[in-house]
Design goal:
Blueprint lengths: L15 H29 L4 H37 L3 H28 L1 H9 L4 H15 L2 H17 L3 H24 L5 H23 L22 H33 L3 H17 L1 H19 L3 H28 L1 H6 L5 H27 L1 H6 L3 H26 L6 H23 L9
Helix pairs in contact: 1-7, 1-10, 1-11, 2-3, 2-5, 2-6, 2-9, 2-10, 2-11, 3-6, 4-5, 5-8, 6-8, 7-8, 9-16, 10-14, 11-12, 11-14, 12-14, 14-17, 16-17
Length: 458
């Protein structure tokens, strides 16, 4: 059992109970988010493979855009966590207000550009795809873009609560989103027969409600488990504070570039997969959704890593930051092992709920097995560990490693394997595993050298 006392004789910032209280709501929140995506695909699956393909293609663009908001939210959360650790209570709320302004501004600009250029944008990205797939994609894309401000607010507010250590709030909101979204899908798809629009409208409504509730809760926020309140009272009277914004962007810009270019690379790979036909697109969409469950524990622990390591760095407890990084990464491995063994055993049965053809189901199963088995070996080092580096303002390093690995290994090898091997649509999944191995090696070396511990923001 771990000692609650650090090597310096101080009580550790986080006990085992504190970690569990932070992590389990994050796991449930991640589960709810993935379930929502899975429910969308399953429900739209009743409309045919063209609808599934259209929605999945647009989802890749949407993820690219949402990653920008998530990056800004991560920047704000890291700054807040470091201020919480250093006990600078007033700066915590100031940072929260600046983050809200930043994400809303970026969301409105992005929404406007995407709506004005939606038709040529989809054609440029996906090229020549079946006409019915493109029709579904255009309808879904237009409706989803109207929800960008709500998505931005949701990401920003939820990240602030996590920085405070209060992960239950975002879990409850995720549950609310699922109820509205899945219930709305059933009504609009099966009741009103709205097609892919029946998936988009409930999503838009759910995210708008969620953003409103989170803003209200932040307005009334109080101290939580020893952490100061993160309060946005008087936000309409606040002017831009470029010193705080600079701190947020110090994490947000590298993280945003990393996430965005990572997703651009995935879109290029999706474009490659699309050349193998509608069945390959549908198999890839189904496998990707289920694969999200495979990494759920490590992904949730990665979110906790930002809070825990950020507060340790802010408090000047560098050895504790290293200790908790090792501990949380190990917990990520344990969680993935416990979840993946039964999930892979029942993989074919799970895929069958999508109602895909036999060949498409078989392809999705191969993709899922590749992802799950290899993920248990290297995924936490590739994606959980680097959040410790980000939490200490070493985001530029993670950005450089991720971009080089993504573009030269995952994207590059996907095309090489597609052209010169008989892997077919599996080409990108094999290249993805090689990408994981490369980035995990770089992150482990960086962590062991310790330079990341001395890059504090505040």
């Amino acid at each position: 059992m771990d000692s609650p006392v650090s090597v310096l004789g101080q009580k550790r910032l986080f006990s085992n109970r504190d970690l569990w209280r932070l992590i389990w709501p994050l796991m449930i929140e991640q589960f709810l988010a993935i379930t929502l995506g899975m429910a969308d695909i399953i429900m739209v699956g009743s409309l045919g493979e063209a609808a599934v393909s259209g929605v999945s293609l647009v989802d890749n663009i949407q993820i690219l855009i949402v990653n920008i908001f998530a990056a800004l939210a991560t920047g704000g959360a890291v700054v807040c966590a470091q201020y919480i650790g250093s006990r600078q209570d007033e700066m915590v709320s100031k940072t929260a207000k600046q983050l809200i302004y930043a994400v809303v501004l970026v969301a409105v600009v992005t929404m406007t550009v995407c709506l004005l250029t939606r038709r040529p944008l989809l054609s440029l990205i996906f090229g020549r795809i079946d006409a019915d797939v493109m029709d579904n994609a255009q309808t879904y894309f237009m409706l989803m873009m109207f929800g960008l401000p709500s998505i931005a607010l949701y990401n920003g507010c939820a990240a602030l609560f996590r920085a405070q250590g209060n992960s239950r709030i975002s879990m409850y909101i995720a549950a609310l989103v699922n109820v509205i979204n899945i219930g709305g899908n059933a009504f609009f798809i099966y009741g009103l027969h709205w097609g892919v629009a029946g998936v988009a409208v409930p999503t838009l409504a759910a995210r708008t409600v969620a953003a409103g509730v989170l803003l209200f809760l932040l307005y009334r926020n109080k101290p939580y488990k020893g952490a100061p309140a993160i309060n946005i009272k008087g936000i309409l009277a606040v002017k831009p504070d470029f010193r705080i914004i600079k701190h947020i962007l110090a994490i947000g810009i590298p993280n945003g570039l990393e996430n965005s270019m990572f997703q651009v690379g995935k879109i290029l790979v999706i474009t490659l997969i699309a050349t193998f036909g509608t069945g390959a697109i549908a198999a890839n969409a189904a496998a990707n959704t289920i694969a999200s469950f495979e990494v759920l524990p490590a992904a949730a622990i990665g979110l906790a890593m930002l809070t825990v390591v950020g507060q340790c760095i802010g408090a000047g407890r560098l050895e504790e930051a290293k200790y908790f990084t090792r501990k949380l990464t190990g917990m990520g491995y344990a969680g993935m092992l416990i979840l993946n063994v039964p999930l892979l055993f029942f993989a074919r049965r799970i895929i069958s709920v999508y109602g895909l053809s036999a060949d498409t189901t078989d392809l999705a199963w191969k993709m899922l097995m590749c992802h799950g088995i290899c993920g248990m070996l290297v995924w936490p080092l590739s994606f959980t560990l680097p959040n410790a580096l980000r939490a200490s303002n070493d985001a530029k390093f993670t950005m450089v490693v991720s971009l080089l690995s993504m573009w030269f290994i995952r994207v590059g090898l996907s095309y090489v394997f597609a052209w010169y091997t008989g892997l077919g649509a599996l080409c990108s999944w094999v290249a993805m595993v090689i990408d994981w191995v490369a980035r995990s090696g770089a992150f482990v070396v960086r962590f062991r050298r310790g330079k990341w511990q001395h890059k504090t923001l505040i």
